[in-house]
Amino acid sequence: MKKVIIAFALIALTNGLHAQGPNEANYDEAKVPKYVLPEVLRTTSNIEVKNKTTWESVRRPELIKLFEDNIYGQMPKKYSNIKYTVSNRDANAMNGKAELKQVLIEVFNNNTSVKINLVLFVPNAAKKPVPVFLLINNRGKENTDPTRATKSEFWPAEMLIDSGYAIAAIHVTDLAPDDKEKYVNGVLQLYPDQLTADNGMKAIGAWAWGASRVMDYFETDKEIDATKVAVVGHSRGGKASLFAAAEDQRFAMCITNCSGNTGAALARRQFGERINRINASFPHWFNTNYKKYNNNENALPVDQHMLIALVAPRPLYATNASKDLWADPTGTFLSLKNAEKVYALYGKKSNLPATPPGINQPIIQSPLAYHNREGDHNLTAYDWSNFIRFANFHYKKGK
């Protein structure tokens, strides 16, 4: 009798796993609903945007506010003081190839402070100042080990140094721990009013804010070319890198790797991860207002092609991985395609094809770049090698 009960229980469990529940992710293109994207070049007062002047003076500010109010939260711009301290320096790191600088960035406001620990390697052989890639690290700190005792494809510092670029990293824990309760311990202590506002900044916004404070530092470092800073993020970090580049136009380049929902992928496709799932699993990432769009994507006044458009005319590279359907590779590519018209206002012609390129067929020589790498949800040496090619194209050829 017990065997029969167990057998029925296993059948029920199996059926439950395969049932089409209301919150089950869709991975079938045939089941993507019909949708209409909000028009990126039409203002809220229904005026068509025909030139970059109207874009910059009217539509761009509108979109920034819509993203702040409905998704990522406000981005505080003011603080009372900022201080930089080089806590460790090694002029002969990586067997003499690079200089290591560990910089403590301390930001003060509201009678408190937040400490951001920056790891920075600068190539010794390169002519100074040099361009730099800044990673918003959402994985373990060992991935950006300053001693290089631990090396990781997630942040292949030696590859970047050998290519003539500086490479830097900050960790999200310094800004807002990635925890639904502990996220308040960091940047939000400087701006406590954000915690009670429905459009208040939460963790993703705090990480983007932190990247801008690193930019403040780069502008003081004579070894760094602060006009050539690429902000990089993977997954949730890729959501933050996009928002950082949209908010802070000092970033010369944006790289968003496998960022998916509320990153580079279109929400209205309802493919892979959806808004209700991300808000349920990570309620501390986005503002309170965003919960109104759970299972209600079409009510959003924006979609992610508009966030990509906010980076224009600066180069932007978005990626996916073939086994990472959760992050919707097709939806990411379509976001880029629907942002092309804003880049066109600046005379920037996209070289993206009409349909997504094949696996491991990167589109590099374009202001909007893309690849879908074979493999899993990750940030790899393959990805970084293409980011270097992308930077070489835009920086060294003056495109």
From TrEMBL:
Q: What is the lineage of its organism?
A: Bacteria, Pseudomonadati, Bacteroidota, Chitinophagia, Chitinophagales
Q: What protein name does the entry list?
A: Acetylxylan esterase
Q: Which GO terms describe its molecular function?
A: carboxylic ester hydrolase activity
All residue ranges annotated as the 4-O-methyl-glucuronoyl methylesterase-like domain in the record: 105-347
Cross-referenced Pfam families = GCE_fung (PF22244)
The cross-references to Gene3D superfamilies, in alphabetical order and at most eight, read: alpha/beta hydrolase (3.40.50.1820)
| Signal peptide from the UniProt entry | 1-19
Q: Does the keyword field hold DNA damage?
A: no
Q: Which domain of life is it from?
A: Bacteria
Which species expresses this protein natively? Segetibacter aerophilus
The protein's UniProt keywords, in alphabetical order, are: Hydrolase, Serine esterase, Signal
Cite the PANTHER family for this sequence.
ALPHA/BETA-HYDROLASES SUPERFAMILY PROTEIN, ALPHA_BETA-HYDROLASES SUPERFAMILY PROTEIN
Q: Which InterPro entries match?
A: AB_hydrolase_fold (IPR029058), GCE-like_dom (IPR054579)
